[in-house]
Amino acid sequence: MKTVSLGAPRSSTVKFRMPTRDNLVPIRVDIEVDGQRYRDAFTWNPRDPDSEVITFAKRTAKELKLPATFVPQMLHSIQGQLAEFRSYEGQEMQVKEKIMPLKIDLRVNNTIVRDQFLWDIGNLESDPEEFARTLCDDLNITDPEVGPAIAVCIREQLYEIASQTVSAMREAKMSKKRRAPEFASNSKAMNNAVDMFKYFGSKGSVIRKRKEWYLYEPVVDVVPKEEAAVVDAKEQLK
Amino acid sequence: MSPAAAGAASSGEAPPSRPPRELYTIPASSGWFRWDDIHETERQALPDFFGGAGGTGFGTASRNPRIYREYRDYIINKYREDPARRLTFTEVRKALVGDATLLRKLFGFLDAFGLINFSATSSRPAAQQPGPGAVVEAPLGLQVTPRPPASYFAEERLGGGTGDGAFRLPQLTSYTDVFGEWAPGKGPICGFCGEECKDGKVETLKDGFKVCSTCCKTNSTNKEEANKCSIVKKESSDNHASSAWTDAETLLLLEGVLKHGDDWDLITQHVRTKNKTECIARLIQLPFGEHMLGNINGKSDSRFQTNQTTDGKTNHFIVKDASSQSTDMVDGMQIDGEEDGADKLVEDHPSKRRRLCSSIDVTSSLMEQLALLTTAVSPDVVAAAAAASVKALGNENPQAKKAFHFIEKEYQVKSFSSNHVQESDCNVGNKEAEMHGQTVPDEKMEKKFISTAYQVRAAVGTAVGVAAARAKMLVDQEEREMELLMASIIETQLRKIQYKIKHFDELELIMDQEYNTIQQIKESLMKEWQTVLERAFQTGAPLQRDEVLTRLFLDRSTP
């Protein structure tokens, strides 16, 4: 069998984008106007013109029967997040294999999902929506809101990791003359990543130990509506 | 997806000599799948692992053919733990280390090709329809489930006609789970209906798979097919002569022997499926059968003795007019012969015991045994033994001499052979029956009775003599063998000792050589010292320490 050099994974650089197949930015909106609260999470294509954001905000407010005062707040929130994303866009992003554990701990309506799995940050073919859909199918989750929520949660984490990596790279470039860049940039981001040698080396096994299964197993709880209301109230008090 | 179709495909493909393996159904379109290879289809569908067009991440640590196979084999094996259940990606990913996206892609590939979830019953709307045909493929890798009983395949092949198409054994089944307990005292269990065959009529297929008569009838449409691949044997409880012994039957036999001793009728009842002679023959064939029988005989010795006395009594009854002395004599002779045999040979022991005990119940069987015994050796030996026994009888009792004279006249034309003995034995049996029926025997008849009684004794004597001769022969053989073995042992030992001596010689030589070299080294050292010292003296005053050292050295080396 052909041996693959573990130490030097092939890497290339691209302009910053979401490390997924569809370059969709996760957006989370949480605004409160006059005692009414609007919370939402969705994905947005950064290539769409900004005028779309206005249309979207207006339409959402209308459909949810929210007062018109919400619209500027929503616009502000969404555009702010898009601007943040775009600020990264000009920068170089290194694409190389890095497998990170992602954690999900969500409550959507009265469904609680806890899960952990590994995700290759360097895989630009990944599809969080598809993953979430499979998860919901496999676990017979009927609530249609759970799947998108999981997908957005994954995207948020990917976005965070990607932006961190980019920032680290920029810092490294700036201080290139003084310090060894690779080491400095990697040490922080790689902390969490899976030890490649351990699992993918010739002596390792990709079959996880049975006693670790529970860590990577999704847990779904459905809580009664009343309890969910109580939790909601508690969160609002914070 | 019907197992019948799968079975048909398997019978065509799998070599019959192979031990049965688990059968899994995969669609015909995925027939390329091999445990020990990666097919081109796989390479094209999942370029990530193999490079090529679209393989973005190939060459990295987590993406190479080896990892691919590990993933693939695990997922397929996981599915095959319970083929009826749908395996989900969520379930798989918790056990596999790797990129979730990549794993999902791989999982989707296997699922689409039917390598997993093909036979799953709980279908999702996305479940694909089974292909037109199916090939069956057995795994080489890890097997989680135990091997199904051999009859499983026969059942599947034939049972497809009777049962519904979706016949499926639950996982981790054992023979008893499926076919029920085959307890002693019951008839054989039918492989089809799983019920006891009460009428005792069963048909045995070529792999020892029993089918009861009712199932046979219902299955008559399939019978032609079945006939092709199986030899059907009608077996009634009386006619088992040609059938082989199964383990269960042997176990029953041993149980019966332990329980009932040498009461073969009871043992036969216990075994049920075999008759008496077969039981006996089987026990003798068993490597430890003799030993067992010997033990039992030892235990039931007392009973045996009483049997002997009854034997004597019956003898007495048969030979009404013969003197009690002659009866004793015959008994004594029997015992003498027996003792001889016991001294000389253990191997013949059980057969002799059997002969004696069977003589208690039926006289004809004794004669059969005698005939059997006499056929075991050459006719010359038999003739000699017979002559000797006749002579001995004649010497003991003049009446007997007369009787034999009479018989000789009768059978003058015929030569003495084992067949002859049997014939005369039959004669004896008939005459005995007559004797029992008649109440007033006349003089001549009486004489005849006496003669037949002597004849019986002569026959017994012959048999014993024959047995003894055979025993002697065997003993001689054994002795020769023992001697041979002993000689070979001694020879080996001698050779061993010789080797040892040789070895020691070599060692000594080596030691000598070493000693010589050491001596040489010593000498050379001495010389060197000498030269050094000489030089030292020539150049000037040596150091004191050196002197002391040299003196020491010299002191030591001189003695």
From TrEMBL, chain A:
GO terms for biological process: chromatin remodeling; regulation of transcription by RNA polymerase II. Coiled coil: none annotated. Keywords: Nucleus, Transcription, Transcription regulation. It is found in: Nucleus. It comes from the Eukaryota. This is Chromatin structure-remodeling complex protein BSH. InterPro entries: SNF5 (IPR006939). Belongs to the SNF5 family. PANTHER family: SNF5 (PTHR10019). One of its GO terms (cellular component) is nucleus. One of its GO terms (molecular function) is transcription coregulator activity. It holds the Pfam family SNF5.
TrEMBL record, chain B:
Residues 237-287 form the Myb-like domain. Keywords: Coiled coil, DNA-binding, Nucleus, Transcription, Transcription regulation. Residues 1-15 have a biased composition (Low complexity). Residues 1-22 are annotated as: Disordered. Residues 240-291 form the SANT domain. The keyword Coiled coil applies. Residues 468-495 form a coiled coil. Residues 24-127 form the SWIRM domain. SUPFAM superfamilies: Homeodomain-like (SSF46689). One of its GO terms (cellular component) is nucleus. Pfam families: Myb_DNA-binding, SWIRM, SWIRM-assoc_1. GO terms for molecular function: DNA binding. Gene3D superfamilies: Homeodomain-like, Winged helix-like DNA-binding domain superfamily/Winged helix DNA-binding domain. PROSITE patterns: MYB_LIKE, SANT, SWIRM. This is SWI/SNF complex subunit SWI3A.
